[in-house]
Amino acid sequence: MNSEQIAGILKPITTDIVIEIIIVIAIVIGLSWLAERILPWLAGKLYSGRRLLILAFIPTIRILLFIMAVMRIIPLIIEPTLQNMIAIFSAAGVAVGFALKDYVSSILAGIVAAYELPYRPGDWIEVNGVYGEVKHIGTRVVTIVTPDDTTVYIPHLKIWTDLIHNANSHTPDLLCVANFYLDPDHDPEQICRILKNVALTSPYINLAQPVIVLLEDKPWGTHYRIKAYPMDPRQQFQFISDLTARGKLSLRKKSVKFAHLSIYPAFQENN
Amino acid sequence: MNGLFEIYLGLRSKKGYSNSMADSNKWQVINADDFHVPAAPTVTKVQQQWKSLLRLLGIHESEPEEEDDNDHQSTVKKEFDRRPAVKALNNHLNEWSKKKESTVCFLLDPPFSSTDDIACDWAKQKKWKILTPPDNTKIRNLDIDGWWKEQKNKNNWLINDLTRYLIRTSYGLSFIRELLPRILFGEFGKGLVVCDSWMFAFIQRIWPLKFSKVYCFAAAGPELLKQVGIHAGNKSLQKLAARVHGNVGIALTVRSIEQNEDRKLPELPGESNDITSFILYSVLMHRHLSSSQLQEILTMLPAEELNLQLFQLKQYGILNYNEDQWGINVEAYLAVRDFLNNRAFLLDIF
User: Fold this and answer.
1) Residue ranges of E strands in chain A
2) Which of A237, A254, B115, B195 is most buried by its number of CB atoms within 10 A?
3) What is the DSSP letter of B24?
4) Does A231 touch chain B (CB under 8 A)?
5) Which residues have CB under 8 Å from B306's CB, separation 6+?
6) Cβ of A171 under 8 Å from any chain B Cβ?
7) How far apart, in whole angstroms, are the C-alpha atoms of residue B86 and residue A154?
8) If residue B303 lies in a helix (H) or strand (E), which one and from where to where?
9) Of the candidates A172, A201, A238, which has its C-beta nearest B170's C-beta?
């Protein structure tokens, strides 16, 4: 494409057009900034489903603002004829193919993610072994914060090939599991009853969701699991801690023995 | 012939008199499944939603009240003439109470509605025994037989507050789990069980079957509010009834505060958090709890943090503290209910 062809595609750039473009960009950045400050603040005051609904609006608003800005700015710079659009997209395709492949792939994946919804702000996801809460869905990356307060940036293009584990799927219901490992000599019905009471008496529990106690026999003893839901996904760790602590206390009061795994079984056998 | 005619007239006039008495009594006992909160006018709904939003955002004129001994009177719920309510209860249960079968009915008691007092008045009228609740030792040891032996009762009975029969700890549920089947199977004879509505919602969650014969008083409308002594226009009373979910006790309190310019309904502190919600839910469910019982229910809370929260809630007029028992202030009930609703707690049906 020579300079004459390029000149033919582009409109004359006047001072007024430049000012208008700057104003449009400034407004979009400002509105986007406001949405990213006000909506999370509002969501922080809410709980359960209402919080997740407000958080879900943030990436949608950003995409809408971006589209509106593009629709406003492009006609100011380019003469939108069919011939010009073909020329522009051909040049862009070459650039994307060679230099910006991964970057554009991430951006496109972000747009797809906004509609396929593998994750939304407020979801707890695991990607490549990293588990955390989705805090921000950017143009190229999704930002999650792990339970250790580490911020991890995951490119959107991960959704093309990697498995995305979503623990709560845009809902306030996140299943938590508390594990107990007991000596095999006990009454399983009594243990199930105790552990169910432990769950039902937790202040964090969502009483509208089911509580299940499961057991599985192992060579070293019996593995019990309480499966229940907290009222808010952010309480999951306190919830599991509460179940574990009170569960152990209740079991000790009934003189239930916990499993004791030998680290050196061969050594102990010989001695 | 004249004598028969006079007897007929007498019977007819008596029936007419009873009909007019029944018409003037607006109290009504219904199945709990049929309970409906009075409909609020659209303007009132919008006002309630706006107030709820302001509470969520922590924007309200909330200041701690100065402690004043005279304020103790303000925390006591307003009384009303319970006799019409007792009559309505009797009309509903009369036929059942005369049958010889050993069945049990449940009567739901929304907070501050005085349903437990109404049931006690009715039981005294019927000469039914009001059972004493078990102490903590009996609850821990699941000593149901020991508890029943102490009652020394062979007649029909009333449990006027089922919340005293359990505590929301892992050991505290076992007593009620053992007691309820024995009551329902008629082992202790015929009885009426009055249960706080919040505790009943929790018990339904832990109990595998749906209870039958569960009753409550119908929501108070403008006519009933007039009957208990609140005088205002129908529109104003309709708004009040919707605002207090048809609860007579709360209506009387809210009305008396609205008529006093110097007082307003308390609001929760702006910094209320998860711990605040746990405390309020526990106290509301059990009606009253001592500090040690609260600590037992909320074991994960350090004692100093629990005490700080309790002190702050007392300062803000949300909780009261009498004879080592913490309870929700009647004036704060609506704010507490709204707060717990916004945090996805299990609510009662009222």
Assistant:
1) 124-127, 130-137, 141-145, 151-155, 164-166, 176-182, 212-218, 221-228
2) B115
3) H
4) yes
5) B275, B279, B291, B294, B295, B298
6) no
7) 67
8) helix B303-315
9) A201
Q: Which residues of A touch B282 (CB under 8 A)?
A: 203
Tokens found for residue B300: 């994960």
The structure's pTM equals 0.83
The interface predicted TM-score of the complex, written ipTM, equals 0.82
B-chain residue closest to A247, CA distance = B170
B142 near A CB under 8 A: no
Q: Give the Å distances, CA to CA, from B323 to B46, B134, B223, B320.
A: 40, 19, 37, 10
Q: Which amino acid is at A267?
A: F
Contact between chains at A231 and B56 (C-beta distance less than 8 A) = no
| Chain A residue with the nearest C-alpha to that of B270 | A45
pLDDT in tens, chain B (350 residues): 444 444 444 444 444 434 444 468 899 999 999 999 888 778 777 877 787 777 777 666 545 554 444 444 444 557 889 999 999 999 999 999 988 888 999 999 999 999 999 999 999 999 999 999 999 889 988 999 999 999 988 889 999 999 999 899 988 888 888 999 999 988 999 999 999 999 999 999 888 777 889 999 999 999 999 999 888 888 889 999 999 999 999 999 999 988 887 888 899 988 889 999 999 999 999 999 999 999 999 998 899 999 999 999 999 999 999 999 999 999 999 999 999 998 989 999 99
Residue A188 burial (CB < 10 Å; 0-12/13-18/19+)? middle
